[in-house]
Known about the structure:
Rossmann fold, 6-stranded parallel sheet, 5-stranded parallel sheet, 24 strands
Amino acid sequence: MPAPRTRARLTGRGLSAVRVSLSRGILVSQNEAGPILNGLPTNLPDTDPAETDEWLESLDGVIEAGGRNRARYVMLKLLERARERQIGVPSLTGTDYVNTIPASQEPAFPGDETLERGIRRLLRWNAAIMVHRAQRPGVGVGGHIASYASSATLYEVGFNHFFRGKDHPGGGDQIYFQGHASPGMYARAFLEGRLDEDDLDGFRQEHSHYVDGELRALPSYPHPRQMDNFWEFPTVSMGLGPINAIWQAQFNRYLHNRGIKDTSQQRVWAFLGDGEMDEVESRGALQLAANEELDNLTFVVNCNLQRLDGPVRGNGKIVQELEAFFRGAGWNVIKLVWGRGWDPLLANDTDGALVNLMNSTTDGDFQTFKANDGAYVRKNFFDRDPRTSAMVKDWTDDEIWRLTRGGHDFAKVYSAYKAATEFTGAPTVILAHTIKGYFLGKHFAGRNATHQMKKLALDDLKGFRDRVDVPITDAQLEENPYQPPYVRPGQDDPRIQYLQQRRRELGGYLPERRGDSKFISLPGDKAYESSRKGSGNQQVATTMAFVRLLKDLMRDKAFAPRVVPIIPDEARTFGMDAFFPTIKIYNPHGQNYTPVDNELFLSYRESKSGQILHTGINEAGSVASFTAAGSSYSTHGEPMVPIYIFYSMFGFQRTGDAMWAAADQLTRGFMIGATAGRTTLTGEGTQHMDGHSPILASTNTAVVSYDPAYGYEIAHIMRDGLRRMYGEQPENVMYYLTVYNEPIVQPAEPEGIEVEGILRGMYLVKPGSFDGVGEDARRAQILASGVGMAWAIEAQELLKADYGIVADVWSVTSWGELRREGLQADERAFHDPFGQHEPTWVEQKLAGAPGPVVAVSDYMRAVPDQIRQWVPGDYTTLGADGFGFSDTRAAARRYFNIDGPSIAVAVLQRLAVAGEVPQEWATEAAAKWKLDDVTAGSSGNAGGDA
């Protein structure tokens, strides 16, 4: 229907002769093709030019008759309706610096305002005093006061009205609490009766705060590993909270769509800082949440405009920046900028003067306003425009000062949360404008140094006491300013009764972590039989040996549904594409296209109930997915077995911080570092050549790391890993296995194999033979792991054939576990230096083993060096130190001198030093085998894939 005709369009250089480009902030002549965000629909024909002209004339008439503000309002309403009707018009990514939800559309606040205000004041006091007391002389462990002060209202509206505990019929929500706000969560648990004063006084003293012989302590931040009945999600390594929350929300849907658990009523809330949003991990996964329509996810960004040292965007506006970013990523954005005191001012702002001031004032200025007083705000904000100055001419400076920001107004927060929980089709972000150090006094609020401030001066304590209205006298504060009293009314106090009742109705206390409530059936002997038989005459790399074992494990009908394969877009590299048509790739939208390989047996298949989490080229997202799946036994009471397989170089090196967070979250599961080794992945170059991941893995105490050489070793390791993580007494560990892409004939498991040695980290795999040599032959021991086993056996053969030396070959399945056991033994000996102690596994195995010991792997020498102090006698390590490079396997191994001949020469050198053989043997062997000539190397399979 044509638009109604209005006055004729203005001509010349009037208001209608230009249009504002919102995307670039410039003016463009109407006669030019100016930029419109997301582009003009130039591919669409104008089927009715006359009607188009009428619409344009109507807009010009609105501008002339009602002014730019009226025209802007009409255009925004049209864009809003266009989005509702889904006609494909791009939406704005930036709106005015005002609340998204107008006052007229806010729901009534359902709580008791007086009681909730009283609760917040108690929490503010106890949270700040806990940190203050932790800074007392003789302790001085510090903490953070200001972050929780700025976000108390954001949390309390959630606790009293939205956050559902684990006993809720819907299963409960997952809350990612901002790490620096942990004092507030402890303060709430104190009011609830879950913690007492002794606990609070143990803040940040996890091994030293004893009360009556009992350790009473609280970790500094949300650390489930340190407080495993309280915290669920570690968040203080900033940026990991946002990405982990996104994949947690995805995993909730994954469980639901696969029929494992009804998670339809569960919501993920992530409380974040505006400074934290500069982390790449904070923003990098937003598109996934929008693509998968994760409307079970809400981000609450505490926009107090400050990061750790100063303003987040002193010259800009972080709320506006984040709004555009999230809108562009497809999120629903709710801006919570101003408290209710601003409502009448905005309602009377008919010509947009106040909104213009709000839009144009920088964050740096907003921060400065709250570090001063009402007179300063009047002069430097309202008086910048005579129209806004007139709005508050009858207001006192105190009344101006009491104008609050939206994140401190409980009614506004409630309105935003309610809108977020009711929105469908996309995730929601709430951008809440707050003040860092709010309510703490002029020395804290909005100050650049407030993040590092850990205590209050006596005058600050008295002023704070007055503002929160707690029953503490000046004399009490003056008696010991370092230890002001906590305040906890009795359980009969109306505030405490209200608090307890709200949590009962919402399903219990939060945060809360629960342990194992369900156990899964693990595969029996049959699943491992094929791996133990070897590969016959077929050459199979350990990567494929692992994949074949996984297929056998997946044949167990009870166990298979619990497996969560996680692959970052390298399934074919790892030989896992065979899973595509069987268990399929998870996609909440199914597969709405015909794949190009549809006719192939191994066609790419996506399904709403698919089992594989295929994250794309996204290791960070993969680890977040691994964390969600691996902690599901606690989060959901549903144990799942994540198996994350990835390029080994892009594991601990690329996402090590996320793996630490996974360990903190008590995650269980298997990480498979495929295409491992510095010389085995031929031709790929420096950034693909992994020569150090076992060292990086060894720094994470929760990681059990193995470097198996054969398929049967993998079978025993996997079986024991399943037992340890998912058996009757589950351990909170993660297994890391390195596997290779070099094909070899996988041997059958030897008769009477020492399974204990495989699991503990070392066993004799190929004793030296005395056939053809005398019993007095010189001896040596060769230790090797992973793909290096073939070079060790080659060296064993060369030494015997050319020099009559008998060497034993040992398979070291885990240098890291051997070292870990050795360190534990040393610790016991330190505390009982003159007692009787069992020798370490390395000492037991090598005790009496004759000759020097030479160790090798496809990693840097630091890997076998891990066990040096427990190896009796002479010990030499070989390794691939330095950068990797593109070349053949044989050439690379000769370059690093870790191949068979290099190992043999190292043995000869050590025997010569010991006077066991002539020195000429070592020199002659090095020349004969051309150790300095990289083109002469021949160790290993020259080609072949996994």
